[in-house]
Amino acid sequence: MTAPKNVLAVIAPHVGGRAIGAGLATLFPEGTHVTVVEAAREDPAALRAAHVVITALAPVTAEHLAAAPELELVQCASHGFDYVDVDAARERGVRVCNIGSSGAEAQNVAEQTFALMLALAKQLIPAHTALVEADWALPRLQHSLTELCGKTLGIVGLGQIGRQVARRAVAFDMDVIYAGRHRLAPETEAEFGGARHVPLDELLSTSDYVSLHTPLTDETRHLLNAERLGLLKPTAFVINTARGALIDQDALADALEKGALAGAGIDVFDPEPPTPALHLLRAPNVVLSPHVGGVTRETLVRIALAAVQNVTDFLAGGSGATPRDVVN
Q1: Beta bridge partners of 11
Q2: Which positions are annotated as active-site residues?
Q3: pTM for this prediction
Q4: Each residue of 263-279: pLDDT tens digit?
Q5: Helical pair 124-132 and 106-121, crossing angle rounded to 10 deg
Q6: Omega of the bond prior to 199 within 30 degrees of 0, cis?
Q7: Counting C-beta atoms within 10 Å of the first and last residue's C-beta, which end of the chain has fewer, N or C?
Q8: Which helix (H) or strand (E) holds 35?
Q9: Which helix (H) or strand (E) element contains residue 249?
């Protein structure tokens, strides 16, 4: 009889913890031993015995990896993988995977991106707040109401999620430009209304909306720092539904307070949850949400199925199997 494979499911408390982990565990086939925790070191024996760690926004550090001698795979239940020490995993011969090719989060993150854009363009938050306080704010807000039609959307990172955003931009009759390491094929650009590949600084200086959809790496941390934020037009809006640390949050708050930017829609923070002292929480003309992009009921099901399927296929294939979406 084949010995059962041990899976340690580490589900961060702020994304559901044990309650979500219990549902995840039921998706694995018979013969897989799944232990659910909220932090990798919570159960040292389970970590030591784990062949696979599946993590939902819970850190997996070099220390955790060193304490798991049987570990073969770290599966991130997300597109992002910045909470895993990828270099330490590589040194130990442990593969790290995300769910990138599944597109599980793409639909909802794209919808959240446009929800933030529309809330800013139509001033929905101040309009709602004023109205429930018996303040008919139309005369005051009218000068700041805008349309998406005809505006330029600059997408930083045209991967699975960025492409879903671009498709929606075409439906809103927006002009799409994008920055990234590689230019898409001309026929693919045509699908997005003739999207143009431009250098990042050009994208920042010409876009009416800048939307971030790139992974967080050492190279992209604080990609939008004070200097780059200074390239944006004072009428421009910044949208971040990717990772909080892509933006220097204090520099963004300063730019908003000085009127150097028109507004920002932020769904992700560094750290998460943010501390009450975060300057950005009190900046003017921001629309904030607690990382709800990617966590609808439908999306959570797709994420869980994609992550579990990759782990199950890997374990069924033996030590020589190659999982999908290896990032290291």
Answers
A1: 56
A2: 243, 272, 291
A3: 0.88
A4: 999 999 999 999 999 99
A5: 60
A6: no
A7: N
A8: strand 32-37
A9: helix 249-257
